[in-house]
Design goal:
Layout: H1 4-21, H2 56-77, H3 82-85, H4 89-94, H5 101-122, H6 134-144, H7 147-160, E1 165-172, E2 175-182, E3 193-199, H8 206-209, H9 213-220, H10 226-237
Antiparallel strand pairs: 1-2, 1-3
Helix pairs in contact: 1-2, 2-5
Protein backbone atom coordinates (compact mmCIF):
# COMPACT_ATOMS: atom_id res chain seq x y z
CA UNK A 1 0.00 0.00 0.00
CA UNK A 2 1.32 3.45 -0.91
CA UNK A 3 2.05 5.56 2.16
CA UNK A 4 1.23 9.27 2.35
CA UNK A 5 4.96 10.04 2.05
CA UNK A 6 5.18 7.96 -1.14
CA UNK A 7 2.06 9.65 -2.51
CA UNK A 8 3.51 13.11 -1.85
CA UNK A 9 6.75 12.20 -3.61
CA UNK A 10 4.92 10.70 -6.57
CA UNK A 11 2.75 13.79 -6.93
CA UNK A 12 5.76 16.11 -6.72
CA UNK A 13 7.78 14.21 -9.31
CA UNK A 14 4.82 13.88 -11.65
CA UNK A 15 4.13 17.61 -11.44
CA UNK A 16 7.76 18.43 -12.16
CA UNK A 17 7.80 16.06 -15.12
CA UNK A 18 4.63 17.55 -16.56
CA UNK A 19 5.99 21.08 -16.21
CA UNK A 20 9.07 20.26 -18.23
CA UNK A 21 7.52 17.77 -20.62
CA UNK A 22 5.66 20.75 -22.06
CA UNK A 23 8.99 22.20 -23.17
CA UNK A 24 10.13 21.43 -26.71
CA UNK A 25 12.20 18.27 -26.50
CA UNK A 26 10.49 17.13 -23.30
CA UNK A 27 12.56 16.69 -20.15
CA UNK A 28 15.93 18.36 -19.85
CA UNK A 29 18.63 16.37 -21.55
CA UNK A 30 16.21 15.16 -24.25
CA UNK A 31 16.22 18.33 -26.29
CA UNK A 32 17.37 21.92 -26.04
CA UNK A 33 14.90 24.51 -24.70
CA UNK A 34 13.95 27.39 -26.99
CA UNK A 35 16.65 29.98 -27.49
CA UNK A 36 16.27 33.56 -26.34
CA UNK A 37 18.02 36.40 -24.55
CA UNK A 38 17.74 34.80 -21.11
CA UNK A 39 19.61 31.67 -20.02
CA UNK A 40 19.45 29.38 -17.02
CA UNK A 41 22.42 30.25 -14.78
CA UNK A 42 24.53 27.37 -13.56
CA UNK A 43 24.00 26.28 -9.99
CA UNK A 44 27.12 27.52 -8.12
CA UNK A 45 27.58 24.22 -6.23
CA UNK A 46 26.72 20.54 -6.58
CA UNK A 47 23.12 19.43 -6.10
CA UNK A 48 24.04 17.67 -2.86
CA UNK A 49 26.20 20.49 -1.46
CA UNK A 50 23.49 21.70 0.91
CA UNK A 51 22.69 18.31 2.41
CA UNK A 52 21.28 17.45 4.89
CA UNK A 53 19.38 20.73 5.04
CA UNK A 54 18.27 20.92 1.39
CA UNK A 55 18.26 17.57 -0.38
CA UNK A 56 19.95 16.92 -3.72
CA UNK A 57 16.88 15.69 -5.59
CA UNK A 58 14.86 18.78 -4.71
CA UNK A 59 17.75 21.05 -5.71
CA UNK A 60 18.05 19.27 -9.06
CA UNK A 61 14.35 19.50 -9.87
CA UNK A 62 14.07 23.04 -8.53
CA UNK A 63 16.98 24.35 -10.60
CA UNK A 64 16.96 22.25 -13.77
CA UNK A 65 13.22 22.05 -14.24
CA UNK A 66 11.30 24.76 -12.41
CA UNK A 67 13.82 27.54 -12.99
CA UNK A 68 14.34 26.45 -16.59
CA UNK A 69 10.60 26.68 -17.17
CA UNK A 70 10.59 30.30 -15.98
CA UNK A 71 13.45 31.12 -18.36
CA UNK A 72 11.76 29.38 -21.28
CA UNK A 73 8.45 31.13 -20.69
CA UNK A 74 10.12 34.53 -20.26
CA UNK A 75 11.86 34.12 -23.61
CA UNK A 76 8.57 33.06 -25.16
CA UNK A 77 6.82 36.15 -23.76
CA UNK A 78 9.43 38.42 -25.36
CA UNK A 79 9.25 36.89 -28.84
CA UNK A 80 8.81 39.71 -31.34
CA UNK A 81 9.73 42.34 -28.72
CA UNK A 82 13.24 43.15 -29.93
CA UNK A 83 13.72 46.30 -27.86
CA UNK A 84 12.48 44.68 -24.66
CA UNK A 85 14.53 41.54 -25.27
CA UNK A 86 17.68 43.67 -25.04
CA UNK A 87 16.85 44.80 -21.51
CA UNK A 88 17.98 43.00 -18.36
CA UNK A 89 15.42 41.13 -16.31
CA UNK A 90 15.98 43.72 -13.57
CA UNK A 91 15.03 46.53 -15.95
CA UNK A 92 11.92 44.70 -17.06
CA UNK A 93 10.75 44.07 -13.51
CA UNK A 94 11.56 47.53 -12.16
CA UNK A 95 9.33 49.05 -14.84
CA UNK A 96 6.75 46.30 -15.14
CA UNK A 97 3.87 48.75 -15.54
CA UNK A 98 5.53 50.23 -18.63
CA UNK A 99 5.39 46.92 -20.52
CA UNK A 100 2.69 46.25 -23.12
CA UNK A 101 -0.37 44.91 -21.34
CA UNK A 102 -0.37 41.72 -23.41
CA UNK A 103 2.98 40.57 -21.97
CA UNK A 104 2.94 42.27 -18.58
CA UNK A 105 1.61 39.29 -16.64
CA UNK A 106 3.86 36.67 -18.32
CA UNK A 107 6.93 38.82 -17.70
CA UNK A 108 5.86 39.48 -14.13
CA UNK A 109 5.41 35.77 -13.45
CA UNK A 110 8.22 34.19 -15.46
CA UNK A 111 10.62 37.13 -15.25
CA UNK A 112 10.05 37.27 -11.52
CA UNK A 113 10.62 33.54 -11.25
CA UNK A 114 13.87 33.81 -13.20
CA UNK A 115 15.13 36.78 -11.20
CA UNK A 116 14.12 35.44 -7.78
CA UNK A 117 15.68 32.05 -8.36
CA UNK A 118 18.87 33.50 -9.86
CA UNK A 119 19.34 35.33 -6.56
CA UNK A 120 18.19 32.43 -4.42
CA UNK A 121 20.93 30.03 -5.58
CA UNK A 122 23.57 32.61 -4.66
CA UNK A 123 22.00 33.24 -1.27
CA UNK A 124 22.81 29.64 -0.31
CA UNK A 125 26.13 27.89 0.21
CA UNK A 126 27.70 24.79 1.67
CA UNK A 127 28.66 25.28 5.34
CA UNK A 128 26.73 28.54 5.42
CA UNK A 129 24.52 29.89 8.13
CA UNK A 130 25.64 31.43 11.37
CA UNK A 131 25.14 35.15 11.87
CA UNK A 132 26.12 38.06 9.64
CA UNK A 133 29.02 40.21 10.78
CA UNK A 134 30.34 43.63 9.84
CA UNK A 135 28.06 46.45 8.82
CA UNK A 136 25.19 44.14 7.90
CA UNK A 137 25.28 42.44 11.29
CA UNK A 138 25.30 45.80 13.04
CA UNK A 139 22.43 47.07 10.88
CA UNK A 140 20.35 43.99 11.72
CA UNK A 141 21.08 44.48 15.41
CA UNK A 142 19.97 48.11 15.25
CA UNK A 143 16.87 47.50 13.19
CA UNK A 144 15.55 44.33 14.82
CA UNK A 145 17.14 44.32 18.26
CA UNK A 146 19.52 41.46 17.55
CA UNK A 147 19.90 38.52 15.20
CA UNK A 148 17.61 36.26 17.22
CA UNK A 149 14.78 38.75 16.87
CA UNK A 150 15.46 39.13 13.14
CA UNK A 151 15.38 35.36 12.68
CA UNK A 152 12.09 35.17 14.55
CA UNK A 153 10.46 37.91 12.45
CA UNK A 154 11.79 36.57 9.15
CA UNK A 155 10.61 33.05 10.00
CA UNK A 156 7.18 34.39 10.92
CA UNK A 157 6.92 36.21 7.59
CA UNK A 158 7.86 33.04 5.70
CA UNK A 159 5.39 30.96 7.71
CA UNK A 160 2.53 33.37 7.08
CA UNK A 161 2.86 33.43 3.28
CA UNK A 162 -0.46 32.01 2.12
CA UNK A 163 0.01 29.44 -0.60
CA UNK A 164 3.10 30.11 -2.70
CA UNK A 165 5.48 33.03 -2.45
CA UNK A 166 8.64 34.41 -0.88
CA UNK A 167 9.85 35.99 2.36
CA UNK A 168 12.41 38.77 2.01
CA UNK A 169 14.90 40.96 3.82
CA UNK A 170 14.96 44.14 1.75
CA UNK A 171 16.32 47.64 1.73
CA UNK A 172 13.74 50.37 1.22
CA UNK A 173 15.06 53.91 1.29
CA UNK A 174 18.20 52.49 2.96
CA UNK A 175 16.19 50.95 5.80
CA UNK A 176 16.08 47.20 6.44
CA UNK A 177 12.63 45.66 6.33
CA UNK A 178 11.10 42.19 6.29
CA UNK A 179 8.41 41.62 3.71
CA UNK A 180 6.78 38.92 1.61
CA UNK A 181 5.53 38.61 -1.94
CA UNK A 182 2.98 36.23 -3.46
CA UNK A 183 3.76 33.85 -6.31
CA UNK A 184 6.89 35.05 -8.16
CA UNK A 185 6.45 38.76 -7.48
CA UNK A 186 9.71 40.47 -6.63
CA UNK A 187 10.57 43.39 -4.34
CA UNK A 188 12.15 45.10 -7.37
CA UNK A 189 8.70 45.89 -8.71
CA UNK A 190 7.87 47.53 -5.35
CA UNK A 191 10.90 49.82 -5.43
CA UNK A 192 12.76 47.70 -2.86
CA UNK A 193 16.19 46.06 -3.07
CA UNK A 194 16.07 42.35 -2.19
CA UNK A 195 18.96 41.25 0.03
CA UNK A 196 17.84 37.82 1.27
CA UNK A 197 14.94 35.74 0.03
CA UNK A 198 13.38 32.41 0.94
CA UNK A 199 11.32 30.49 -1.60
CA UNK A 200 8.32 28.96 0.18
CA UNK A 201 6.69 27.42 -2.86
CA UNK A 202 6.04 23.76 -2.08
CA UNK A 203 8.35 22.66 -4.89
CA UNK A 204 11.25 24.10 -2.86
CA UNK A 205 10.83 21.70 0.05
CA UNK A 206 8.08 19.11 -0.31
CA UNK A 207 10.23 16.08 -1.14
CA UNK A 208 12.11 16.34 2.15
CA UNK A 209 9.80 18.27 4.44
CA UNK A 210 6.32 17.51 3.04
CA UNK A 211 3.91 19.98 4.70
CA UNK A 212 6.36 20.97 7.45
CA UNK A 213 7.23 24.41 6.17
CA UNK A 214 8.53 25.47 9.60
CA UNK A 215 11.20 22.76 9.48
CA UNK A 216 12.28 23.92 6.01
CA UNK A 217 12.49 27.53 7.22
CA UNK A 218 14.66 26.46 10.17
CA UNK A 219 16.92 24.48 7.82
CA UNK A 220 17.35 27.52 5.56
CA UNK A 221 19.25 29.36 8.31
CA UNK A 222 21.98 26.67 8.16
CA UNK A 223 22.81 27.38 4.50
CA UNK A 224 22.55 31.16 4.11
CA UNK A 225 25.43 32.76 2.24
CA UNK A 226 25.78 35.82 4.42
CA UNK A 227 28.77 37.07 2.41
CA UNK A 228 26.57 37.40 -0.66
CA UNK A 229 23.83 39.12 1.33
CA UNK A 230 26.38 41.52 2.86
CA UNK A 231 27.72 42.42 -0.59
CA UNK A 232 24.22 43.32 -1.74
CA UNK A 233 23.66 45.35 1.41
CA UNK A 234 26.82 47.39 0.78
CA UNK A 235 25.90 47.93 -2.88
CA UNK A 236 22.37 49.14 -2.29
CA UNK A 237 22.94 51.26 0.79
CA UNK A 238 25.68 53.30 -0.91
Amino acid sequence: MMTRRDAVKTTFLTTAAISTAALPGGLLGQGAPPTGPFKLPALPYAFDALEPHLDARTMEIHHDRHHQTYVTNLNKALEGQEALAKKTVEQLLRHIEDLPEAIRTPVRNSGGGHYNHSLFWQMLKKDGGGEPTGSLGKAIDRRFGGFARFKEEFSAAATKVFGSGWAWLVLEEKELKISSTPNQDTPLSQGRAPLLGLDVWEHAYYLKYQNKRADYIAAFFHVINWNFVAERFERYRA
